[in-house]
Amino acid sequence: MPWYKRTYDWLERRVQLEAPIKEAALHNVPKNTASWWYVFGSASLTLLILQIVTGILLALVYSPSAGQAWNILQSLNHDIPLGWFLRAMHGWGSNFMVAVVLIHMAQVFLFGAYKFPRELTWVLGVCMLLMTLGMAFTGQVLRFDQDAYWGLGIGASIAGRVPYLGGAIVHLMLGGPIINGSTLSRFFALHVFIIPGTLLAFTGLHVWMVLKLGINEWPMPGRVVRRETYAQEYTELAHKHGIPFVPGAVWKDLFFSAAVLLAVAFCAAVFGPFGPKGIPDPTIVATVPKPDFFFLWMYTVLSYLPPWMETPMILIAPVVGITFLIGLPFVAGVGEKSWWRRPVGVFSVMFLAICWAGFTRLGTYTPWSPHMDAWSGDAVPVTYLEHRTPLERQGVNVFQQKQCRNCHAIGGVGGQRGPALDTVATRLTEDQLVRQVLLGGGNMPAYGSALSPAETTALVKFLDTLHPSHEPTAIDASRQMVEQNAIPSPSTAQQGGGQATLRH
Amino acid sequence: MDEKLPDPVPEIEEQRLEKERVSRRAFMMAVGVALNAAVAAAISVPVVAYLLGPVMRRKDEYLAWVDLGDIGRFPPGETTLVNFRSPFTTAWDGDTANLPAYVRSFPPGQFTVFAVNCAHLGCPVRWFPESQLFMCPCHGGAYYADGSRASGPPERGLFTYEIRIQNGRLLIDAGQMPTLSNRASASPCPPTGQASTAPALVTRIEPCPGTNAPTIG
């Protein structure tokens, strides 16, 4: 007997792991589950392992000290050989993990895998999704820069909205009265011990249940799940027409996992690590904080909520959402699994995906935020200065200097909070412009106390020149008549000539 | 004849004793479990107290009077960004213990100190003296010079610190991050009977019931 065989036997007699491993690897699975659609769960596990390994490697250097963390990240990026690559792997690994976990969840939902008898596997999966998102958020905090600091501020402000307990939750979350050293160290404990420890335990149980209950069969229209007969039907599918998991199905998992790891490494090498951005010094108020990619949709939602909906929505919507996800297998635990027979489920996924994509896209360019530097950075196009009177040009100065540009684009540059003003004169008459500037309204602040009468006149005279040459400005019919001291002609009155001629 | 029980068969007797012994062991195990539960409960008291340490404070324990400097530092009619060191800090807090605030000296001789944290979700608002507005870079909130809400998602005006002037120095009662949980209610309207501080022109628009404060944004 060769030496390695003897060593193996010596070990196996003591650990006795061969039988359970063989049983797990060679168990039969329904034939058509050996599909490329079934690779996302194992890929999530692969990414979790990648995150643990790269996380431990980063922990060799990182220190959760508010005064030092940012410098250490810089040192990882620039001084420590390949520190940048490990940071990049961990950062991109995190993005890939959230993405793959979400795809896994959508696939499992569409294939009806949450139904009897796999309800608890689904519930555990929902918890694991929340923990994955928790890892993404706490990880963003450990990248201790301005985004992390103000992200914590947003988290604390959300927690502060909880009735009665808000203050206590804020202090518990921050570890004190403000965001400081104790905040970072407790988010470190969350990111490195508490959440990953729980996530690993849950992953073990999740995989255990997949092995014990069997992988969800490929759904067929008309093959309805019934509690009484399901076990027997599944055994038949898996044993009579099944194939062993290894190697029948596992090769696709292996291929996909390798591809995902390669993709993470590729992104890490090509795009590099995330941040850190500016130093986490709260006295630098000239900053534009932004959440990481997978939280951009929330950024959008929080910006578009009307003030009265703010607190109820922030506090109630997550509870409703999570309750719905956890309750799903208990409400719809039996019946059709096939997507061909579940239009509501399919359209829900499509609806959520479209909402998510739309909100995320808006979050990438934040049209609701004033562009803080537009007033001093973005020039007024020269064409808007040509053939203008000195007064109108003075209006351009006012327009620029009073930060109008921060919210209003002109010539395609500037903020998008308010409407672009390139053709504003076709929409508002001079009087309406004066009113809008002085009194605000429609989400515009009133500038009455920030503008002198002369400035207002100049500004409005300039704004009134903003119309295409082929389109006249909006005029106030009644005013014209008063000026001409004329009675309205019947035709105008019959036409219902309103106060202003509005064009859009 | 004497009524006498037969001697127990040794095997049966042995079985009976075995059962008894097992039940005694089971009892001891139950005692052991109870003992551990009691110890765990006893240990958890200090553990929970340790975890809740930051919460178990009196309301004013996170507030202290901080000196912002001589009142002459703040030009009348202007709004100035100032920095101060948090009164509760450790050596490893680094820059995070340096906190900013806006001091507004208007009308001259009177002071209002605003927190930089937007009342919506806490982002740092920026002051623009030209347009007399505070603008928030995150979700687009805007406030007038007096801190009242001008537009965007915030439900109320900027948070203010309590102030005190002592020996010609401006002091604020600071120390904790202002959120809706520790500051005044989220109403955009001031309490009834209190005059609005919004710009005169704005007050003409749709007032809050019972006051002349505007509700617009």
Task: Produce the secondary structure layout.
The complex is a heterodimer of chains A (504) and B (217).
Chain A: H1 3-15, H2 18-26, E1 28-30, H3 40-59, H4 69-78, H5 83-110, H6 119-142, H7 146-159, H8 166-174, H9 181-213, H10 230-240, E2 242-244, H11 245-248, H12 250-271, H13 296-304, H14 310-331, H15 343-365, H16 374-377, H17 390-401, H18 404-407, H19 424-427, H20 430-439, H21 453-463, H22 477-484, H23 490-494
Antiparallel strand pairs in A: 1-2
Helix pairs in contact in A: 3-5, 3-12, 4-5, 5-6, 5-12, 6-9, 6-14, 7-8, 13-15, 17-21, 20-21
Chain B: H1 10-51, E1 64-70, E2 79-85, E3 98-105, E4 111-115, E5 126-128, E6 133-135, E7 142-144, E8 149-151, E9 160-166, E10 169-174
Structure description:
- The complex is a heterodimer of chains A (504) and B (217).
- With 504 residues, chain A is mostly helical.
- In chain A, 61% of the residues lie in helices and 1% in strands.
- Chain B has one helix and ten strands.
- In chain B, strands 1-10-9-4-3-2 form a six-stranded antiparallel sheet, with no helix packed on it. A four-stranded antiparallel sheet of chain B has the order 5-6-7-8, with no helix packed on it.
- Chain B is rod-shaped and about 120 Å long.
- About 12% of the residues of chain B have low confidence.
